[in-house]
Design a protein that fits this description.
alpha/beta; DHH_sf; globular; Diaminopimelate Epimerase, Chain A, domain 1; Phosphoesterase RecJ domain-containing protein; inorganic pyrophosphatase (n-terminal core); nucleic acid binding; Oligoribo/pAp-PDE_c-di-AMP_PDE; 2 domains; DDH_dom; single chain; 5-stranded parallel beta sheet
């Protein structure tokens, strides 16, 4: 029997009520929605059930420390614990090796379903973000759940991050209504926006380099390859390149694009975006996945990078002709 979303949400609430120890995971290389949904859910649980212990698994991100900083947890913390994973479609991308060591496991996600895991899987691909889903979870059970100011701040940051300040096509009327409800809480949303989009001088130089050196094919496919040597010359690491992944988007004629970042082992992390052509199917063919217009993949070498670009050119032409 297929359960309705309301029934899945009811089951999740019952699980949260059942367990006194709860550990929440999210994906590696976190973005604002990963941290916002993870810790925002934790704040919702703690405010609603103060007697419960909530911990967060994963490595932090220097640029997102203003959202949350992480403390280490051990396998012993998972004894008699409910584990919840937010914003993570693929098992391989779960941050924290002990996610499967708890007493029960729940998946909450908005990506197209890749890996199946957990006794409960609540997936809503129409949601702009998992932070939007967690806010809806709170609103659905307002009689039983309490959201505090810190939880609202985190969830708002997650929604803003995954919608690109409400400019992406995943922004719906429901997204705006939920964001408006979060703004009624006591936090400074202008500080959240400034912190999300401010950048150190070295990243600003990287952004200028990205605009200047992104190559655009006749089909409308943009690409930029960033070497380890170049990044280190700016004093930057791979995680800093996330700040410029959207930079080629406003270039006239660009339909889809990729930023390919060399890793220490010589492979490439592929940050892929699109204004229309569907690209997550291509990402899945290259050890990745994600949303139809925003995905990530991995390439063993420059030859595989070229394979991805060739596929991008094909879907760009097909999209143009549709």
């Amino acid at each position: 029997m297929t359960l309705t979303e309301k029934q899945l949400m009811e089951q999740i609430l019952e699980k949260i009520k059942q367990w006194d120890n709860i550990i929440i995971h999210r994906h590696v290389s976190p973005d604002p929605d990963a941290i916002g949904s993870q810790v925002g859910l934790g704040e919702l649980i703690k405010a609603s059930f103060p007697e419960k212990t909530v911990k967060y698994a994963g490595e932090g991100s220097e640029s997102l420390n203003f959202l949350h900083t992480y403390e280490p947890i051990t396998i012993s913390d998972y004894e008699d614990a409910l584990v919840i994973v937010t914003d993570t479609a693929n098992i391989a991308r779960i941050d924290g090796e002990y996610y499967n060591e708890g007493a029960d496991l729940i998946k909450i996600d908005h990506h197209p379903k890749d890996d199946s895991y957990g006794s409960i899987e609540w997936i809503r691909t129409s949601a702009s973000s998992v932070s939007e889903m967690i806010t809806d979870f709170w609103q659905t059970f307002k009689d039983e759940l309490t959201l505090n100011n810190e939880g609202a701040r985190l969830l708002y940051a997650g929604i803003v991050g995954d919608t690109g300040r409400f400019q992406y096509n995943n922004t719906t009327p429901q997204t705006m209504r939920i964001a408006a409800d979060l703004l009624s809480f006591d936090f400074d949303h202008t500080v959240v926006l400034r912190k999300l989009y401010e950048m150190p001088p070295a990243v600003a130089r990287l952004q200028g380099y990205t605009l200047e050196h992104t190559k655009v094919s006749p089909e409308g496919v943009g690409h930029l390859i960033l070497s380890q040597e170049f990044l280190h010359s700016l004093g930057l690491e791979d995680e800093h390149t996330n700040a410029v992944v959207s930079t080629p988007g406003p270039i006239s004629g660009v339909k889809c694009w990729g930023i390919f970042v060399e890793q220490p082992d010589g492979t490439y992390r592929c940050r892929l975006r699109s204004h229309g052509p569907i690209i997550n199917t291509i990402a899945k063919e290259h050890n990745g996945g994600g949303h139809p217009l925003a995905s990530g993949a991995n390439a063993e070498n420059l030859e595989e990078v070229q394979e991805i670009l060739n596929k991008f050119r094909k879907v760009a032409v097909e999209w143009d002709q549709a």
